[in-house]
Write a structure and sequence with these properties.
461 residues, alpha/beta, Dihydrodipicolinate Reductase, domain 2, six-stranded parallel sheet, 13 helices, binds nicotinamide-adenine-dinucleotide
């Protein structure tokens, strides 16, 4: 993870919470059985010495430089060029990756180069679509950071560009390639927690950097920052170092906590459950603490209905009074699956097969009749008797990095031309769902979305 996204450390432990609340006894909770997750089989390595993928970076800030350092760990990948709008970052990339690196403020110079096979786009959100579409039309494969879209109209354009050019487009929500998420998906599909009815996920923070107050360099000015190029299609305002370096705080460039963090929780939920997206969204929140001129909330709560029969409940809190903390909890009729830190924990609590009815004061005949009616209405899920309660914890190896796997998957697709998991359709379904929260918050209403057609219902935005 980049330095400004500290690793999550707390454990989202519903049974611990229930135990603390006295709702279940310690004796009734099985001790977790620990399992080490094995590394996934490595995607194809280069087939020959000439089979190198020449990568260029567009947007060399915190995530762009971090992503590049991870991408270069994948065998057969080299960095040949970098574009950025702040000269200090171009200088630092040459310090980091060699003085011969081609650098420019104008990414079109990179796209014009025949020695670039693929680009990694890590600009602010409002540039994702244009840079990605330009790159695909220039014949480059694209790894584009999340959120895929800034505006709803970005989605169809990016999908169309990927289809018409035949280029690989992978979106950068790296959890989709995580072995933890794959384990959670397999557990859910195997019926480990019965029928899913709710997903609860959060990403809380409690620091200035967590709340996007990124450091402004000492030499920030119109001499070192290409302000018109940074603005692009955003409203044309005079130079602001704060808006240049802390762009997430303004809707003109970023997508609020929904586009920044909810989108990760959507990508994870959609990957694990295999669904396309919600049909209804409602959100609330507010600017509770970081009243520094930003025009997006720092606390947001949102609820979503999925046609598959479950609800999603999301939260981001930038003043949570504790440590950075990210987690997802899948609740089913027979247990929960929790993802937190470097592990997945499945807690199986089979439903009782015999009904607990308050019929003891009725006649024996009526008791028998009511028990049989109950059994007919709620048939036993486990004909051979319910399996015992159990808690299994699956841990990724120390130092496991899902970003590496996500880049390995991308480069594998670049070499083999096989589809990527997180393609433009997946990326739009995740980001389009996330941004429903902003619409609901801004418009003070429930927003309807067609997740199959990927369209807002009865709204034009
Ligand atoms: N996948 C993740 O976990 C993750 C984590 C952090 C950020 N991100 C995403 O990465 C992207 C970048 O975030 P960041 O934190 O690195 O921001 P940042 O401000 O640190 O870096 C953005 C860089 O883009 C440059 N830039 C702006 N317009 C440009 C243009 N037209 N051409 C070339 N360069 C341009 C800026 O000068 C800046 O250096 C965002 O979309 C963000 O959502 C993803």
């Amino acid at each position: 993870m980049p330095p400004f996204e500290p690793p999550v450390s707390s454990i989202l432990d519903r049974r611990g919470f229930l135990r603390a609340a006295g709702l279940i006894s310690a004796a009734s909770v099985a001790a977790p059985r620990l399992h080490a997750l094995a590394a996934q089989s490595a995607p194809a390595a280069p087939v020959s010495a000439n089979d190198r993928i020449r990568l260029a970076l567009i947007g060399a800030g915190g995530q762009g430089q971090y992503d590049t350092s991870v991408a270069l760990q994948v065998p057969g990948v080299e960095l040949v060029a970098v574009a950025d709008c702040y000269d200090g970052r171009l200088d630092h990339c040459r310090e980091r990756w060699g003085a011969s690196l081609f650098t420019t403020r104008d990414y079109r110079e990179i796209l014009a180069r025949s020695d670039v096979d693929a680009v990694l786009i890590a600009t602010p959100d409002h540039w994702h679509k244009q840079a990605a579409v330009d790159a695909m039309h220039a014949g480059k494969d694209v790894y584009c950071e999340k959120p895929m879209i800034h505006l709803y109209s970005d989605g169809p354009e990016m999908i169309q560009a990927a289809r018409s050019t035949g280029r690989i487009l992978q979106i950068g929500s790296q959890r989709v390639s995580s072995m933890l998420y794959a384990k959670a998906r397999d557990l859910l599909a195997s019926g480990a927690i019965g029928q899913l009815n709710m997903v609860t996920a959060h990403w809380d923070r409690n620091s200035a950097i967590g709340a996007w107050d990124y450091t402004i360099p000492l030499d920030a000015s119109t001499a070192t920052c290409d302000w018109p190029r940074f603005l692009g299609t955003a409203p044309q305002i005079p130079f602001s170092a704060e808006q240049f370096f802390q762009w997430r705080k303004w809707q003109a460039y970023g997508s609020g906590v929904a586009g920044d963090l909810f989108v990760h929780l959507f990508s994870g939920t959609h990957f694990i459950t295999g669904v396309k997206g919600p049909t209804r969204a409602m959100a609330t929140g507010g600017l509770r603490f970081w009243k520094d001129g930003r025009n997006v909330p720092d606390v947001m709560l949102a609820l979503f209905d999925y046609p598959e029969g479950f609800n999603l409940n999301l939260r981001v809190n930038f003043v949570d009074g504790g440590q950075e903390n990210e987690g997802l909890l899948f609740t089913g009729s027979e247990g929960t699956i929790a993802i937190s830190g470097n592990s997945v924990t499945v807690s199986r609590v089979p439903r009782e097969s015999a009904p607990g009815l308050t019929v003891g004061t009725f006649t024996e005949a009526m008791q028998r009749q009511m028990r049989s009616q109950y059994a007919a209405r709620y048939p036993v899920v486990h004909p051979a008797g319910p399996p015992p309660s159990a808690v299994d914890r699956y841990a990724a190896p120390d130092g496991y990095n899902d970003s590496y796997d996500h880049f390995a998957n991308f480069f594998h697709a670049v070499r083999t031309r096989q589809p990527v998991v997180e393609d433009a359709v997946f990326g739009f379904r995740a980001a389009g769902a996330a941004l429903l929260s902003n619409l609901s918050y801004e418009q003070d209403s429930i927003i309807h979305w067609d997740p199959v057609a990927m369209k807002l219902v009865n709204r034009s935005v």
